[in-house]
Design brief:
With about 170 residues, the chain is α+β, with helices and mostly antiparallel strands. It has 4 helices and 7 strands. A 7-stranded mixed β-sheet has the order 1-2-3-4-5-7-6.
């Protein structure tokens, strides 16, 4: 369960450093991202700005002492025009905050904001087929849509990618 003082806000340019630090940890130690090099603070700020310009949600969860406990965003699933109503979610939680409901709070808020942004389908592309991420998405109404076995090589072994999806709106 999330800490009672957890609050979700739209990301601001000043959040780029904390967001980049969380992402760097996941790139170096996890399989949620298949990047092998973390994004710079400048690239992270540009990503936040792009989402703001396009009206796509980019959220941060603030916890104790106003620190960023995690972040989530939704981007168009593919760049082609026909995909304009489908998005992909990305959720990353500070490792010190995992298991406290931060991911669930972010995903719940992201679903509302993605629908408000005009998306009608949301896709989870789960690197490594991570069981915690699969369980989180299933708890939020996502259904299994496929698995690409042995898709990438990261941290010394082949990793699967799991796809899940959920309809937004009517």
């Amino acid at each position: 369960m999330a800490a009672p003082d957890l609050a979700i806000y739209p990301a601001a340019p000043a959040d780029a450093s904390a967001v980049a630090a969380i992402y760097a940890h996941h790139v170096a130690h996890g399989t949620a991202s298949y990047d092998t090099e973390p994004r710079s603070v400048a690239a992270t700020a540009a990503l936040i700005a792009e989402h703001r310009e396009k009206g796509w949600p980019f959220l941060v969860a603030r916890g104790e002492a106003d620190t960023i406990a995690g972040y989530a965003y939704a981007s168009q699933f593919r760049p082609r025009a026909a995909y304009a109503w489908a998005c992909e979610d990305s959720i990353y939680v500070d490792p010190a905050q995992q298991g406290r409901g931060v991911g669930r709070a972010l995903l719940d808020a992201l679903l509302v904001d993605a629908e408000a942004a005009g998306f009608r389908t949301i896709v989870a592309v789960i690197g490594g087929g991570e069981p915690a991420s699969v369980a989180l998405h299933a708890a939020c109404g996502f259904v299994h849509a496929g698995r690409l076995a042995g898709m990438v090589w990261k941290h010394g072994r082949w990793r699967d990618t799991v796809y899940m999806r959920r309809t937004l709106g009517d």
